[in-house]
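I hope you will forgive my troubling you with a question about protein structure. I should value your view on which stretches of the chain appear to form regular backbone elements. Here, with my thanks, is the record as I have it:
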Amino acid sequence: MTEPRAVRVKHRWRWGAWLISAIVLLAVFMLISAGVRAKIMNVEVFLSYLTSQQVLIGARNALILGTLALVVASVIGLVVALMRVSGNPILAALSATYVYFFRGTPMLIQLLFWFNALPTMFQRVHLAVPFTDIVLLDAPTTAVVTPFVAALAGLGLAEGAYMAEIIRAGILAVDKGQRAAARAIGMTEYQVLRHIVIPQAGRIIIPAGGNQYIMLLKSTSLASAIGFLELLRITTDIYSSNFMVVELLAVAAFWYLVMTAFATAVQTALEKTFPQR
């Protein structure tokens, strides 16, 4: 009886993948070479502004605005998603209208609206405790609706529509059999939502929510249109005076990449801490 011989496995050479990779690398090399030959950027200027106080303040403002907008959007999105799946036709219609409107209009238009239209519609903001003489706030609307407030309202409301659909998808992804089993043992709808649906839906929506956080951090650049001193607005003001356009745009791009890396790290940590299964 002859002993079986070892079979040598021969892997196929994937010429197509290697050819595409070579073309991409060649294109990148040609682009970098063209930039070096044209001296498109002064590295010294880039490095000098990379850690300047003004730029760091702009990056900090963008990070704060994007993070707070995500918090506002998450709260709004949860409420709207629960309205959408409540089974109440009126609440479902209202939530669907909200999602349609705020997803269908550009964020920039919404920011401009909150900043310009509200002071025209309401001359003053007057808040008081009902049936008392206690006044909580009485000021011109222009003093209340600052560029930061308008940007936070615009980004939060617009992103709330996207988060509503993400949360709704997470809720619908939870197995209906678990809800039925929970009701069978006497749990109320609130208990089912709190202990069964939301914990599992929260794990499901983490990847999509992290992606929206990254989008929000970059969308803070839209606030430059209403005068909020975020990263793009500050770098634009600087290169408007020294004409170092490419260098300052590269500085802004660098810090947006840093913020994106931060958001990605947070998303990865959450995914590891709260895995879907």
